[in-house]
Amino acid sequence: MIEKMKNMKANALKLFRTAIDAVDPYTCVKHYLVFNNNSSHNGKAELHVGNNHITLDHNLYVAAFGKAAIGMCRAIDELCHEHIIKGIASVPVGAEHNLPDQAAMNTAQRIQTMISDTMCADDIFLVLISGGGSALLPLPIDALSLEEEIQIIKLLQSKGANIQELNTVRQAMSQLKNGGLARIAKATTIIGLILSDVIGDPLEFIASGPTFYSGNKNRQTLNIFNKYDLMNRIPAQFLQHLKQYENTNDDQNISSIKQIYNIIVGSNRIALEAAAHLCHQSLNYIPFIMTTCLQGEAREVGRRIVELITTKPSQLIYNDNIACLFSDKSTFDAFQTLRKEHKRYCLLLGGETTVVMKNNAGKGGRCQELAVSAALTIDNNQEDISILLLAAGSDGIDGPTDAAGAFAFNGMITNEDDIKRAHISLDTHDIYTYLSEINDGANLLKSGHTSTNVMDIIIVLVDNKE
């Protein structure tokens, strides 16, 4: 069994690396953009963005922000270096733990100055957007300080707010989000190339939609504060602003006076499809993509994944408890067929779970909690099925730790003392400390920063005994 688990672990690592390579920001940008320096159309260089041909004539400004900014910038620099007038990138040197900081705000102010003071209407504004962009483009409205914005985000995170709720509030707090960047830019042609880190790839929520206006967010923000019982903890001046401008429209007909192209160049689905292809071609497992919209509390998701696999198909019923694991009911039906027809298969899930933090929480991350919860659920005495799960952040970061995620497998947590400690560590959200201490930390995945971000990736290898 030990040797088998080593092989399964090695295969899971191959799949994870293949998934990450598929959403390499440099590759993604080059795949979607074509640069023609000898255009027969007008004798000038052109940038082909999908079916749109954009004329370049030393008139390109570039702004990039997010965990994939460097790779995306490198691709643009190689494609059309001679036409770039100026570019500014905000990368994760600041913005620690995905929270805005003064360094990121300084860069945001430089971007604001570049696009509002330096640009002309005939210029082209290329915006390179990736996960972490919300924290790396902070420019609060006048009713808020940066410190107050940070505290509001921390409060929402501690309450378990999902990414859609977080980004809705971020939009209400910012001058540049929710189409603000496009609105203040003097250029009338704006291209947004986007590496999505949000479930469903909604333009309004990826980096909080700096090039996409989706309506006034003040009422929604107030509703979110009410939902999490935070009204008494929000600065009074900001609450007053939200109520005063609850019904205003900031669009100012931006879509009628500017050409804005927003294109998703990389996503969680692209990553999972690459892993599925390798699985089918080389690893002798039948791949099955369950969902790219995984949500829910991390511990519950980990437990339910294992219960799903270990429950006989005839006893499994599609209900609210497992619906989060599937794209829809038809995907569940296909999963049932898969289990009946195949002994070896690989389940692939993508999305972003949550952890509801408590006071005095320890050190850990959602992927690590998901994995340990799964490990505790695996029946160590069940010899007719081998399970290995890897849950990891595609950015190589899981919480405020140096780990991307963790593994779970048969026999990982066996003795009573380890089981007890695992439960305590989950309750105190100190799971990184626990995983570091058992098996010399070998059950943690430490990939380092991947320079991309398409949410979390969960790989589950299943081998039923013949």
Automatic annotation (TrEMBL):
Give one Pfam family, short name only.
MOFRL
Task: Fetch the Gene3D superfamilies from UniProt.
Answer: Glycerate kinase, MOFRL-like N-terminal domain, MOFRL domain
What is this protein called in UniProt?
Glycerate kinase
UniProt superkingdom: Eukaryota
UniProt record similarity statement: Belongs to the glycerate kinase type-2 family.
Q: Where are the transmembrane segments?
A: none
The leader peptide range reads: none
Q: Which GO terms describe its cellular component?
A: cytoplasm
Positions of the MOFRL domain = 346-456
Any one GO molecular-function label of the UniProt entry: glycerate kinase activity
Stretches assigned to the MOFRL-associated domain: 12-243
